[in-house]
Amino acid sequence: MVTDPKYRTWVYRIAAPAAFFLAATILVILIERGLNGDPQTPTTVLPTTSALDTTTTVGTTTSKKKQIYRVKGGDTLESIAAKFDTTVDDLLALNPGIDPLALSPGQKIRVA
């Protein structure tokens, strides 16, 4: 243990920022895993229905038509959901892995 006050002050000046940096890094990692849905965390995905689901029933066979939308400049998930009479939650369920805050023009997303 350091007993000299001169060295003790030096240790505190190094240790405090290092501890803060470590805590901030851990916090960022935890938040990122929570936002991205860490695969180690069990989640339950419930089936959703959309107003645009088109089903054709022939006997016992059901098929859904997939519909793709190309994102334009200024589009948000909310505006796309409004265009297709659906919800943001439905769009996120149809497009796992997209970042709703980082849509880019030309990106293709599934809307039905």
Strands of the biggest beta sheet: in what spatial order?
1-2
What is the CATH T-level topology of the largest domain? Membrane-bound Lytic Murein Transglycosylase D, Chain A
Question: What would you call the shape?
Answer: rod-shaped
Sketch the major β-sheet: 2 strands, antiparallel
Let me know the average pLDDT: 78
Q: How many helices? A: 3
State Rg: 24 Å
Q: Specify the helix fraction band.
A: 40-55%
Distance between the termini: 65 Å
Q: In percent terms, what proportion of residues is strand?
A: 5-15%
Structural class: alpha+beta
Do you know the CATH architecture of the largest domain? Roll
Topology:
Blueprint: H1 5-36, E1 55-58, E2 61-64, E3 68-70, H2 77-83, H3 88-94, E4 108-110
Antiparallel strand pairs: 1-2, 3-4
Task: Provide keyphrases for this structure.
112 residues; alpha+beta; Membrane-bound Lytic Murein Transglycosylase D, Chain A; 2 domains; two-stranded antiparallel sheet; two-stranded antiparallel ribbon; 3 helices; 41% helix
Describe this structure in words.
This protein is an alpha+beta fold and 112 residues long. The chain folds into two domains: 1-43; 55-110, LysM domain (Membrane-bound Lytic Murein Transglycosylase D, Chain A), CATH 3.10.350.10. Helix content is 41%, strand content 12%. The protein is rod-shaped, with a radius of gyration of 24 Å.
Short synopsis of the structure:
By secondary structure, this protein is an alpha+beta fold.
